[in-house]
Amino acid sequence: MTPDRRRLAELTGDLSAAGGVRLVTLGDGLERGIRTLEFRTGSGLAFDVLVDRCMDIGHAEHAGRAFGWRSPTGFRHPGLHENADEDGLSWLRSFSGLVVTAGLDHTLFGGEVPADGYRYPPRQIVRHGLHGRVGNIPARLTGYGERWEADRCVLWAEGEVRQAAVFAENLRLIRRIEADLGGDEIRLIDTVTNAGFEPAPHMFLYHINLGWPLLDEGARFEADIRETLWQTDSVAEQKADHLTFPGPAPGFVEQVYEHALVPGEDGMHRVAVVNDRLGMKVSVEWPAAEFPYFFEWLNLRSGNYAVGLEPSTHHVSGDAAAREDGSMIWLGPLESRVYHTTFRVS
Q1: How many CB atoms are closer than 10 A to CB 208?
Q2: I need a surface site. Which of 49, 83, 205, 259 has the fewest CB within 10 A?
Q3: 3-state secondary structure 302-324
Q4: Coil, strand, or helix at residue 291?
Q5: Average pLDDT of 148-157?
Q6: Which interval of the chain is the signal sequence (predicted)?
Q7: Spatial contact of 341 and 286, defined as CB atoms under 8 Å apart
Q8: Can you list the positions of beta strands (E) in 63-184?
């Protein structure tokens, strides 16, 4: 419990004794040059916002125990990213951290779709890589700091990410991240706007990646699943449990599930990973109306050990299928959509 505003002022001349937000720049290796906001709530919750990586959340821990996944790639500077490399799979060379955003006009596997809506004859098609472009675009940092609301202190950051080209999409993401001083939750509020004047396709997904030590043999996945709509062939081949997780295994092939979740009476979807041995639980909730679909990703390979929780605007079949079946979201000129997601550690 953090003291109230007056008592805290009596105890220390600097709020950073209790927590806060600090802007730093990473200085070595593949991460060199990435602006990072370090959040510390004072409860034991600490996490990094990677300003130059779509303001995604990289490292995350509670009481010194990490729960955000760290892959072998590190937090690679976006200037090193080549979107169309490796047949669109180059996204996997930048894939690490608690939250990696997919979109804004495409999610899931790559491919080609018609570009006739942009009315530029030389651009006949749009080529997409895995999970789109936005996760490797730097943000314009518009503000960060600490704000008192009576005796509640909110740590916050906000920035703008632009995904745009001449004669193509002009999409903007305004991302706001909040956490309370003394609190154990992260609030993510995203507003996606078509800043152009032609209808723009919009798909959006959060790759929420949980790793060791939260993820370990015996850790559990909790969700109110009505039905599993789809799963990869590797599920039947490997038969790894997706509710109580095994430990890492060499050569494990990713298992992916699309689950239809049952929303609570308040219209919220809720999922969690629980480690009873640590007495630690990380839960995620969001309005079902904003992200109707959900994927569970099991990457239990040795050296890449992770579980992904993935709220999504669309089914697993991707861009071309969404256009064909009419489920694609088309944002009109200056039209916006807002997304609210909360992470809790207990």
Answers
A1: 25
A2: 83
A3: CCCCEEEEEEECCCCCCHHHHHH
A4: coil
A5: 94
A6: none
A7: yes
A8: 65-66, 99-102, 111-114, 125-128, 140-149, 152-164, 170-180
% residues pLDDT > 70 (the chain)? 100
Helix H or strand E encompassing 227: strand 225-231
Contact 202, 258 (CB under 8 A): no
The mean pLDDT of the chain is 96
Three-class SS of residue 237? helix
CA distance 339 to 290: 6
Task: Quote the tokens at residue 31.
Answer: 């991460």
Asked if pLDDT for residue 1 goes beyond 70, the answer is no
296-327 pLDDT per residue, tens:
999 999 999 999 999 999 999 889 999 999 99
Q: How far from 78 is each of 26, 74, 165, 217, CA to CA, in Å?
A: 13, 12, 17, 34
- Tokens 């990973």 belong to 273
pTM for the whole structure: 0.97
Classify residue 79 by burial, with Cβ atoms within 10 Å: 0-12, 13-18, 19+: exposed
Q: Count CB-CB contacts under 10 A for residue 7.
A: 11
Q: Give the tens place of pLDDT for each residue, 98-107.
A: 999 999 999 9
In whole angstroms, what separates CA 234 from the centre of its chain? Answer: 24
Residues 6+ apart with CB under 8 A from 122: none
Query: What's the half-sphere exposure (Cβ side, CA atoms, 13 Å) at 17?
Result: 11
Full set of structural domains in the chain with CATH? 5-345 (2.70.98.10)
How confident is residue 25, by pLDDT bands cut at 50, 70 and 90? Answer: very high
Q: How confident is the model at residue 332 (pLDDT cuts 50, 70, 90)?
A: very high
β-pair partners for 257: 231, 296
Residue type, 328: M
Structural contact between residues 133 and 54, judged by C-beta atoms closer than 8 angstroms: no
